[in-house]
Amino acid sequence: MSGTNANRPMEALPSGSVSLPSPGPLLTRTGWSSFIVALLVVCALAPALNLIVPADSAFHLSDYMVGLLGKIMCYAICALAMDLIWGYTGILSLGHGLFFALGGYVMGMYLMRQIGLDGNYKSELPDFMVFLDWKELPWHWALSDSFIATLFLIVAVPGLVAFVFGYFAFRSRIKGVYFSIITQALTFAALLLFFRNETGFGGNNGFTDFKRILGIPLATPGMRMTLFVLTGLTLLGFFLWARWLVNSKFGRVLQAVRDAESRVMFCGYNPLPYKLTIWTISAVMCGVAGALYVPQVGIINPGEMSTANSIEIAIWAAVGGRATLIGPIIGAFIVNGAKSFLTVSFPEYWLYFLGGLFIVVTLFMPQGVVGLVKTLRGKLGVRSPKVQAAERPASVVLPPKDAQPQAATPTGAQA
């Protein structure tokens, strides 16, 4: 600072001025501790329990549990994506299953090309194409043998579809239940398209019987654990990135659009680029989840685009708690964990449980599991760091001690 600026007297500020709150930390101390614990579980504890601990030990993590937890973490990424678009922007999508399936199909095309001559027909073409008497690959399979191109298309295909659809929908100011119905119709149309054999996506059977990825067999314990760790790291990375996003200025505008879009427009903001950006980001996250899902489950078919799957994604977010980020992840684990148990023990009652759970959450737990925990903590007198910070007195900006208050000048006293 120059000497002139340093010697300039500070202007007296009104005693009632309150400084604006600075952006909070990405995570609280407890949040960082929980994040590090989750990171250690994904990268160290789970691999050790699966690969090192003997299979006859009570602490052994079976290959079945590794696959199940990896699949649920893929679902949790979808739930996190739903929270960004529904919980923080107020846009309920019933078509996110489409973006999940698109990412899965892109990865499935690459895995089908990796089969090579190991298929039933010993042909370079996938088995279903040989069965249908196809002589060459269709044009949209041109880059399916490149892993680098596959990684790009996993992001580009769902993102492009979401961008084009979102641009026309948001530009036409379609919102509320009408937007939800249109997204559901889009998903159903894609479902019918992918069911057709002539599209080159395997028809109703889809893609299956995968052998290897990057030349490495998929059935080995090491590859299963590698996919598990990659999925966990992706989920944790998306969670941190989402936390940063919603705490930024961009995220504050999204929440303002959710609460009062017309007022946001009156303030000079155009909601279209904000809604379109978060919509596209949410679709890309689902596409990445689908790409991680396929090699772990071993199959992708048009059933992943069903409207029921898209509705389930919304249920995960609602059960866990919208606009919390951690809530939808918890909701995905709760609902899919219960699904895995009930579909084996009581398969005929699973849909009744899912419907009843959604009704209970809607009527008695509108804030989800996370909201219920916060309510119980409040009743027990346990306050979170955010609440304690909010209860502190606001910092008041006072004038310097040597500043003399200026006498009010009567009206008309100046020449």
Task: Give a verbal description of the structure.
The protein is mainly alpha-helical and 415 residues long. The strands form 2 sheets. The protein has a two-stranded antiparallel ribbon. A two-stranded antiparallel ribbon has the order 2-3. A hairpin with a 2-residue loop joins β2 and β3. The chain is globular and about 65 Å long. The two termini are 37 Å apart.
Summarize the amount of helix as a percent range. Answer: 55-70%
User: What integer value in Å does the Rg equal?
Assistant: 27 Å
Terminal residue distance = 37 Å
Strand portion: under 5%
Low-confidence segments:
1-18, 389-401, 405-415
Structure summary:
This protein has helices at 3-7, 29-52, 63-87, 96-115, 127-131, 147-171, 177-195, 221-247, 249-259, 261-266, 271-297, 307-320, 326-345, 350-364, 368-379, 385-391; strands at residues 207-208, 212-213, 216-217, 299-300. The protein is mainly alpha-helical and 415 residues long. The strands form two sheets. It has a two-stranded antiparallel ribbon with strand order 1-4. The protein has a two-stranded antiparallel sheet with strand order 2-3.
SSE topology sketch:
Layout: H1 3-7, H2 29-52, H3 63-87, H4 96-115, H5 127-131, H6 147-171, H7 177-195, E1 207-208, E2 212-213, E3 216-217, H8 221-247, H9 249-259, H10 261-266, H11 271-297, E4 299-300, H12 307-320, H13 326-345, H14 350-364, H15 368-379, H16 385-391
Antiparallel strand pairs: 1-4, 2-3
Helix pairs in contact: 2-8, 3-8, 3-11, 3-12, 3-13, 4-6, 4-11, 6-11, 8-9, 8-11, 9-11, 12-13, 12-15
